[in-house]
Structure formats: structure tokens, C-alpha cells
Amino acid sequence: MLRFIAGSIFFVSIFLFLSVYISPEFFPYAGLLTLLIPFLIVINAILFILLAFSKRKLAFLPLIAIVIGWKFIGITFQLNTPKEAEPNLTVLSYNVHMLNYTKPGQNVQEVTKNITKWLQDDNSDIKCFQEFYQDYTTPSRNAIKAIGTERGYEYSYQVVDGNVSKRSFGLAIFSRYPIINEGKVFDTKRNNGVIFADIVVKKDTIRIYNAHLESMSISSEGLTDIDGIKENYRETLSKLKRGQVVRASQLGVLKEHMNNSPYANILVGDFNDVPYSYTYFSLRKLMNNAFEKAGRGFGFTYNKILFFLRIDNIFYDDLLEILEFRTHNEVDYSDHYPVSAKFKWNSPLIKESEEIE
């Protein structure tokens, strides 16, 4: 019986550890099962200790599973310390929930005032926002002016709902440095998409990608408590599966665009996917993750009932060095927490392809 249990846990663990490399376009449910990875690592650790103390040869099975799954520990938890150096660039990413995320007893005006003030006081060189709301008709809701132009920032604002008007929402990039090029990688005509901006930092040029990949499309009412999640589990699973498949497709478009970038890339945003996912591991092959290299703790970024999710990230190219990464979980003006990073590099900042030419 013990052999069967140990063997079953081992094979399930190995399958899930490897499933992060399987595109949900081919196996839609793989991305849902990977949520069990942290639990399997803990179970294998406990099983190894029990079997080792019992001097059972079966202990080698959970040990092998732990070795293969070791990378998931660093993805989940970090104890990095900031590096003492002067940064070339500081970057902030924040899903601002239309600047209107209310809690019991709050009103929209109060929330807008608070989050706007925090964003005005933040000194990041680059500020990237998802679910950004712009209202040219109301001074208190003119976010581009309040957060950007009045503070000396240039900006790139791309509407992703197909409705270009005096009131709109989409993705925005604000920069203290000159923006020499901008564009849209794709959008869904709803509230998701990816935009980019080429920014001249002194003598170097950096390309900033601001991403908001396909949402889980689970209403806030369904996430208010555990009972609500249980009641709607079938619908929730269906939406999670669909989100996995769509994000895999979007990822292909994004990766092709980044591969054609003539500059070093920084990719930030709300990826709507956990670190144990095809999305995360596909990007991790191409770029470094700021949390893994310079973060501390668990870095959870979701500010709702599923508080244990880290779905907001900053990725960066090898040409850049990360000095510090922070999850600002003291800032609860949205259903996401902002994340920020400090970077440095050696000038001139040139890609290998450009050096060869």
C-alpha cells in the first residue's frame, strides 16, 4: 500500500512539474492542475522525511520529485536583498482597476483621490498601468493630466475597448524620458491587450512592454467568499480553462514582437496567470523575472479573496541588471498591488544582433 501511495504521488508530481511546458492550446486543463504544485512539493517533503527516518528505500521517489521540482521553490518564495548601486531606471507596474476600486464605506471620489495622490507621489521613471481610465470631461478624473503631464511625464495611452471618446479605458505608459516610438501589439477590443513604447534613457534606448493578458473573467461577486466559489465552481473552471487557452495564443503574438525588438526589453503587467503556468515558464525561458532575482517573501499581488496569487510581474532582458524588486502590498487602492523594480546597465546598451552588424 505504501509503495502504491509513494509511486502515485511521484508520478503525479512529475507530470505536473513537466506540464508547465505544455501549451493549454493542446491540453487546456494542464494549467488548472499546476495550481497543485506547491502542495505536492510539501507532500513530497513530508513523505521523504517519514520514509527516510523509517529507512525505507522508497524515500528516493519523493527525493527525486523534490530535486526535479526544486525550481518551483524559488519561483514561490525568495529572500533576496537589494543591491547598493545607483539605478539607471526605475519602473512601476499597476493594475489600477479603472481608478475606482471601492470597499465598504468608500465612494469612488475618495478612492480616485487616494490612488491619484499615491501615483503622483511615486517617483518611478516609468509607470505602466493596466485597466487605466481616462475622462477628459471631469477634472478629477483626468488621470493623464493629474498623473502624467502635470508631473512632467510623457505618455503613451492606447484604448483597447475600441471606443475612442472623451471617456475611455485601456493601457498607459508614462515616462520621465522621451518616448520616440509607441504602438499596440494587440488588443481584444474589450479590456486586454499589450502596448509598447521605445524610451530614450540618456544615451540608451529601452523598449517597455505593458501587458494585460486575457482575464480570468470571474466576477467579483463570485470571489467574495469561499461559498461563492463553491457554488460557481463549474462556471469558474470553464472560464479558467478558456483564459489559459487564450493567453497561450496571445503569448505567441507577444513573443514574436519582442523577438523583433531592436532594443533591450522590459515586460511588465498583469498576466492573469500564476507562476506555475505555461505563460510564466514561456516568458521565463526568454527573460529574467524580477521577483525571482530581487524579490522577497511570496510577492502575492492579488488583493481579493484569492490573496495567495502572484499574477503581476516584471520581466527583463539579460543586458539589464536588477537591483531591487518590491511588491507594494501596503497600497490597497485596487484589486491588485503595484510592483516596482530598479535596473542598471552598462552603456552603450546594444543587443548582440546589432553588435554583429
Q: What is the element string, with H for helices and E for strands?
A: HHHHHEEHEHEEEEEHHEHEHEEEEH
Helical amount among residues, as a percent range? 25-40%
Radius of gyration in whole Å, from Cα?
Answer: 22 Å
Instruction: Supply the CATH class of the largest domain.
Output: Alpha Beta
- The poorly predicted ranges are none
- The proportion of strand residues reads 25-35%
Which structural class fits the helix and strand makeup? Answer: alpha+beta
**Based on DSSP secondary structure assignment, what is the total number of beta strands?**
14
The number of helical runs is: 12
First CA to last CA: what distance? 64 Å
Give the overall pLDDT as a whole number.
Answer: 91
CATH-defined architecture of the largest domain: 4-Layer Sandwich
The CATH homology group name of the largest domain = Endonuclease/exonuclease/phosphatase
Q: What summary fits the major beta sheet?
A: 6 strands, mixed
Cofactor: Mn(2+); Mg(2+)
Keywords: DNA damage, DNA repair, Endonuclease, Hydrolase, Magnesium, Membrane, Metal-binding, Nuclease, Transmembrane, Transmembrane helix
Protein name: Endonuclease/exonuclease/phosphatase family protein
Domain Endonuclease/exonuclease/phosphatase: 92-336
Question: What do these coordinates show?
Answer:
With 357 residues, this protein is of the alpha+beta class. It folds into two domains: 2-76, no CATH class; 82-356, Deoxyribonuclease I, Chain A, CATH 3.60.10. Helices cover 35% and strands 25% of the residues. The protein contains twelve helices and 14 strands. The chain has helices spanning 2-19, 30-33, 37-53, 60-68, 71-76, 108-121, 143-148, 226-231, 233-259, 278-286, 290-294, 352-356, and strands at 78-79, 89-95, 126-135, 154-159, 167-175, 179-187, 193-201, 204-212, 264-270, 288-289, 296-297, 312-316, 321-327, 339-344. Strands 4-5-3-2-14-13 form a six-stranded mixed β-sheet. The protein has a six-stranded mixed β-sheet with strand order 6-7-8-9-12-10. A two-stranded antiparallel sheet has the order 1-11. Helix 1 packs antiparallel against helix 3 (37-53) and helix 1 (2-19) runs parallel beside helix 4. The longest helix has 27 residues, at 233-259. The model has no long low-confidence stretch (mean pLDDT 91).
